[in-house]
Structure formats: structure tokens, C-alpha cells
User: What shape does this take?
Amino acid sequence: MSLESSTSPGDAFAALGNEVRISILRAVADAVEEQGDGLRFKAIYDRVDVDSTSQLSYHLTKLEGAFLRKSDEEYALTQAGNRVVRAVRSGAYDERPTFESTTIEGDCPSCGVTTLSVAYRDSLLTVACASCESNVVTYDLPPAAGEGRTTTELLHSCNRRAHHEYGTALQGTCATCGGKTTVDVREPEQRAGYTCVAACDQCGLQLFAPLEVRLFYHPAVVAFYWERGEDVSNVPLWRLLSYIGDWTVSASGDGGLPCEVTVVCDGDELQTTVGEDLDVTVA
Ligand SMILES: [Zn+2]
Ligand SMILES: [Zn+2]
Assistant: This one.
């Protein structure tokens, strides 16, 4: 299957580069949510600050197709129009999240210290080692995420979203755009272990984590921990070492996949194999 598009991305973004048009989309979205129907021309004119009906007609023609559809004289949002309104409401385009830097208990894989610093840097929420300054995890931080949450709640919320995005991407689907993802496994360099990289063929999103994280998405591993009193469905990535530190990973002859991973919890072991396409089998 391939994508067909009637509007080029350049035209679509140009159509949105105007405050009146964003107001129109928001007005239509509000109306649909309030009363379940779209809006007629006159109703849009009453709700949007625009100088004349001819100006409103002009803006509507620019939005029709990609962002608005018209039937029986009523305008409603297309799926793309809906996404734009949700992004605008979330503050994605005009707000910057505020975040007070803090410290947190965790594990630095590079030097082993357990105090990490959390700060908002270059549009990302970064958990870094306070001692050797290496980055431990970085999270995407949309402005809406900070609303009504404490620092700790925000960090856990980012972690939950990261697991959702990564777990979905490892199974072939980009959680951001719905495109197809390709997963690549990088072999260990020096001391570091295998890294799984999931990249979206459509929007270019790239996510990566140690191979062991893949195991936390397998029901047998989740059950193994659950039976020992631990919920590993959203393992804090800044504390990953305290979970996987005792695991062993041994590759087959040539160093690539498949490899055997021994999952360890409370001294008990679970033997697993991660195959070439990241399928997991449990002994
Ligand atoms: Zn460190
Ligand atoms: Zn994507």
C-alpha cells in the first residue's frame, strides 16, 4: 500500500499559516463537541473575527479538502483538521514547558553513581549523571505534559509515553504518525550491550534502547516479575540497571542475533531467546 495525497505538505502548511484559519478550525471543533454538528457559513462568520463574508469565503476555500469538508452546507473537520486543533490546544506550537531542574535516584550505566539530575534541555527532558555528565535517558516533553503534574509525576508520565511509543515501534508501527517502522539491532561496542533502534520510514522518528528493554514487553517476562511482586509494565528507564544488571546476554557464534537472555529476579532465572526479528521465545 502506498500513500496518495491530494494536498502537498507545503500547501497544507501554507494553508495553516494564518490566525483566522486556525480560529475557523477551532470554532468548528468546538461546535462539533458542543452540539454534535458541523457549522454553516453564517455560524462560522458569527464566531470568528473576520472583516467580511468574502474574506471568510476565501479562508474557507484554503482549508477545504485537507482540513475541512463540506456537506449539506455544513463544515466539519477532516482527520488532519482534527489533529491540527488538538496540537494547537495542547500548546505544541506556541508554548514551552516549564521545568525546575531536580535530582533523582537512579543508575548511571557509565560510572555507577546513583544520583542523577533531571533538567529540560534543547526541547527534551534529560536525565543525566550528576557526576560524569553522560545522558542516561532523554524524553520528548510536550508542553501539555507539565500541566497539573509534580516533577516526579511528570517524569513517570514521560516514561510511560516512551514505553508506549517504543513498544509500538518495535512491533512495526510508529505511535506518532502510524507509519511503518524498521527495527535494527546494533551489536555491542566495547562494554555496552546490544541496542535496538526503531525508526519510522514515514516521519523519521528514531527511538532506541538496550535490547533487554524488548523483554519487558513480553507477557512471560511481565508475569515472571509479577509473580515475584513487581510490576514491570513501565520500568523507569533511569533505573534500568537495577532491573537488568544481573541479567546475562550471550550471543550465538558470530556475535549477532539470535541471542540468549537470562532474566533474573530475586535470584530466580527465566531463560529467553531473542530472535533475528526480535521475536522472543521462553524456555
Ligand atoms: Zn555517570
Ligand atoms: Zn512516524
